[in-house]
Every structure is written in C-alpha cells, then in structure tokens.
Amino acid sequence: MSMDNELIVGLDIGTTKIAAVVGEVSEHGIDIIGLGTHPSHGLRKGVVVNIDTTVSAIQNAVEEAEQMAGCEINAVFAGISGGHIQAMNTRAVTAVKEREVRPMDVARVLETARNTCLLPMDREIVHVLPTEYVVDHQDGVAEPVGMAGGRLEARVHIVTAASTSSQNIIKCCERCDLSVAAVVLEPLASTLACLDDAEQELGAVLIDIGGGTTDIVIVQDRSVVYTSVLPLGGNHFTNDLAVGLRTPMGEAERLKQRYGCALIEMVNPEEEVQVPSVGGRKPQVISRQILSEIIEPRAEELFTMVSEAIERAGLPEENLASGAVITGGASAMPGMVELAEVILAMPVRMGLPRHVGGLAEVVRSPRYSTGVGLVRYGAENIGGLQMMDAEPERRGFWRSVRQMFGRAF
Fold first, then answer.
1. For residue 64, what are the domain limits?
2. Rounded mean pLDDT of 148-164?
3. Which of 247, 169, 185 lies closest to 219, judged by CA?
4. Mind listing the pLDDT tens digit for each residue in 69-119?
5. What is the Cβ-side half-sphere exposure of residue 9, based on CA atoms within 13 angstroms?
6. Which of 71, 129, 151, 164 is the most buried if burial means most Cβ atoms within 10 Å?
7. Which run of H or E residues covers position 181?
8. Helix 163-175 and helix 51-69: axis angle, to 10°?
9. SS3 for 182-199, per residue?
10. If pLDDT is split at 50, 70 and 90, which confidence band does 401 have?
11. Of the candidates 329, 409, 325, 319, the residue with the CA atom closest to the CA atom of residue 368
C-alpha cells in the first residue's frame, strides 16, 4: 500500500464496547485492514456520561487498530445513537433557473429543507436524507441531475440529535487527538453494512440491538424513510439475569453470551449451568431453561416495541417485502431470529457485515456491523481520508500478520 492510498476509520462508540475499524479503499472496493475493540463503561443508553472513561476506551481501541493496520489514525467517522435521536419527514421546493437540473439545484433544495426545519437551540441536524425528488410533476425521481424542468422538489428524511450528545462524542475524539470527519447515525451505517441491493429496493426493516438501545431504520426504494430508537438493549437481558439469578453483572453477561437463548423450546431441559453467587456463597447449579425463562419475556417485550414502532411508521405491508434484518451484539443470541419472526410476522434474518474484503471473516459478526458500516459511509459519501503512515518496515510486518490471520479463517 502506497503512501497515497486512502484509509477510512469507523469508530463505533457503543454502550458496551468501542470498536475502531480501518478500511482501505481500492479500485476493487473496501478491504478491512485493522480492527480494535475495548469495553465501554462511559456510556449509558448510547449517550456519553463519563468523558474520561470514554476517552480511555477510544484510545485503547484506536491503538489496537493502528497496530493491526500499521498506520497512525488521525481522523474518524464517529457513530451516534441514543434515545435523544429524533427524525421527521419533510419537503422543500426550489426553482430550476437553467431549465435543466444541475448539482447546485439539488444542493440548494436540500439546504432549503435543512433551513425550514425549525429546531430548539439544544438540537442539531445530523443527516438530511433525500427519499425522492419531483421534477415538475414527475415524482419518484432518484437522480434529478440532467433532467429538464423548472421546479425541483425534494422529499427528505431529517435526523436530529441533542447537541450536547454530539458535542461530547466530538470532544472525546479530540481528546484522543482524532478529528471527526462526520458524526453518523449508527443504524444508518448498519444498513450500509448489512442490507443487500434487493432488500434496499424492495423495502426492509433493520433492527440494530445494541447494549443500551435498539435502533430501527426502515429503508424503501434505497432511501431511509423512518428512524426510531428504543430505550431497550442487550444490557437489559444481562441485568435481568443478574437480578433473577443473584449473580454479579459480569457473570450474568458471560452466562448470557454462552448459554442464553430467547426461546425456551429451543433449550434442552436436561442441560444444567453453574451460576456463581454473590457474597462468597457457593455457586448454584440450575437448568439452562431457567435462563431462557428470564430472557424470553424481555425479548418478547423488545420485539413487541419494535412491532409498535413499525406500525407508527404507517407504511403499507407491501413496502416491507424483504422483511426484517436484526444485527448488533445481542442479536447473536440463539432464538432471537425465530422469536422476531413470530412477533413481527415477517421474514427475519441475521445481519452480518458484507461487501468488504481483507479481514472480512474477522469482522463477520453482528457486533461489527456499525463499525464496518461507518467505513462504507465514509467511502460512499465523503471519500477516503489521508492518514499518516507508519514506518515501511512496520507496515510490511503487519501486512504479513494480516495475511496470515486472514488465511486462518
């Protein structure tokens, strides 16, 4: 890789983990060349509540990614989520002066849509996402540039966030000597990583189940038409297990990841699990079904809330022909796909990062959907960022390591 190659770094700042994903943009697409993760304890429900703890986690994740990729990271595309996220659909109109739509006309109508969105002082716009354009009376236009007409209308989906939440993310990155190229809605990034072209065309629901929140994005005709954030995530499963089994949170998380199941009927009733106790008491041995009896009601609550959010979107059923895709760390629990299909009454599949090369198998997990999606967002919307390369010898060493690591999977 030459000094001129473009590198893009996605920084997933989540409630349970910080993940830094380094991608290299080439003529063949995007190769993942570095990954760094570190537990996150400075966020609550997707919002930064402890700057110092978050900064430390970001530094550790970025340093690990730098070592694997053999580069120095200077800039990132940072993800944002949380219950403060709100969205609305609106429209704006502008006159086409030259009787042919030019890029400046598109930029002007989108800026008009941004300016007509009246927000309180404590909120800011994160994205202005066009859903369709109307040129004169021709609707359903995806790319208006070059079309003849005198009137251009844009129908857009505007995503907003609490200004303080966005500023705190930027502040944490800056304290790590990182500039933020863009703050990106995390479920939007996940759609880029997980949905294929047919799903985006026919219409699909992406459900990103994180540690503190569950993010919902509905895509139709390759455009985002609905966004919602639910204050329920994987940490609630962990907390339920900790309380119900009287075990420490760390052990509850381990039990959830290793033995958890969202459907009781999928668990062997004869299988037993040893559960550590608190206060120095002896561990208890219980049936694995007891774990599912605790987890299943919470999973039912989660997908019921998702179903209600989809209903609030008010879209006809045929507009979601592809069904739902669940991703995020908690989605990997056995039984989640099957339970979601029952409650949502639509086809459901597990969403894994796709459309990338390099260490694709290493990041092929729902835990990394957002990080990989942030890299794709950078590549598709803004382009590569120039990073400061490390020494050529170190780069060659880490390239060899990556090649060996990639062949191991």
1. 6-83+164-192+353-407
2. 94
3. 185
4. 999 999 999 999 999 999 999 999 999 988 899 999 999 999 999 998 888
5. 35
6. 71
7. strand 179-185
8. 50
9. EEEEHHHHHHHHHCCHHH
10. very low
11. 329
Q: How far is CA 262 from CA 98, 256, 345, 364, in A?
A: 59, 10, 17, 22
Tens digits of residue pLDDT in 7-17:
999 999 999 99
pLDDT tens digits, one per residue of 312-369: 998 887 889 999 999 999 999 999 999 999 999 999 999 999 889 999 999 999 999 9
Q: How many domains does the chain have?
A: 3
Residue where the block lists tokens 């402890």: 50
- Decide if 1 is inside a domain: no
22 and 91 inside one domain: no
- C-alpha angle 76-142-215 in degrees, rounded to nearest 5: 45
Tokens of 273: 């699990």
Do 380 and 325 fall within a single domain? no
Q: By the 8 A CB rule, do 201 and 221 touch?
A: yes
Q: Could you tell me if 108 and 136 lie in one domain?
A: yes
Is 339 a member of any domain? yes
Residue 139 φ then ψ, to 5°: -95, 180
Would you state the structure tokens that stand for residue 188, as one six-digit string?
A: 């939007």
- End position of a domain, from candidates 352, 367, 396: 352
Cα–Cα distance, 164 to 168 (Å, whole number) = 6
Rg (CA), the chain: 22
